[in-house]
Amino acid sequence: MTSCEDEALAQAAVAALTGQLALAPKPGLPDPRDLTARVTRRDHRGMRWSAKALAPGLAAMAAAARRTGEPTPRLRAELGAIGRSTEHSVGLAGGGHRGALWVLGLLVAAAALDPGARGRDVAATAKRIAAHPDRAAPRRPSRGSTVSAKYGAAGARGEARAGFPHVRRALDALTASRSAGATEAQARLDALLTVMSTLQDTELLHTAGPMGLRHVQAGARGVLEAGGTATPEGAAALAALDTDLHTRAWSPRGSAGLLAGALFLDSLPVLFKEG
Questions:
Q1: Distance of CA 200 to the CA centre of its chain
Q2: What is the pLDDT of residues 125-144, one digit of tens each?
Q3: Digit-coded pLDDT (tens) for 14-71
């Protein structure tokens, strides 16, 4: 049975994911701007709906962590089982968000283990959970794991086992951009670009190959080096990168999921203060 605290963590994670979806322009990623196109409107609405469908599974993950009390192999196995069930439910609601579920599920469970912890400490606890193998996981390799093996990329599992370094970088970028006077939306876009600039995104490696990945990383760095999205030069570079990636149909989905993780961790001080 889930508690009010479990439900609050799940809702904070869903809010982080829907907050990421609302940003625009997100280079190569869906955003809510073009509501004149019926397909775009339907797809974006479906993504928001399926994001909300994650809430019961995320609350169950928090409850499992709270019951277990330690980042044990047993907890890792239970989180894996809940995650696979949640993926099925989300598939019925329209699909999507598999990568974000992995990120948010581990971070929600880690936050439930230590309600007083904040950003980097929660990521460190998530690392301890992810260190255990999920022995009940399907033996057939996923596309992400296949791409990781082919190109030597860390992938989603490597990111978690390293303590989510790109989530931590996104948190730092949020703080820096806010301190420099950026709006909240601009700070979040800067955090996304910070992740994109260095992440070995397996989705991009699959669709664009190593050269395409480097092209995207260089484009993200170009926006940041122009002063970030709060400057006219940075905003122009962002618009150009967005157009370029949409034209090429290259989507840095891994970066989007990690940004959602950072936004979740960023919300914890307020969440626990209210609690």
A1: 14
A2: 999 999 999 887 777 767 77
A3: 999 999 989 999 999 887 765 444 345 445 566 666 788 899 999 999 999 999 999 9
Torsion of CA 270, 63, 54, 168, to 10 degrees: 50
Token digits for 114?
A: 């230590």
> What pTM value is reported for the model?
0.91
Cα pseudo-dihedral 172, 175, 179, 181, rounded to 10: 110
**Cβ-contact 115, 68 below 8 angstroms:** no
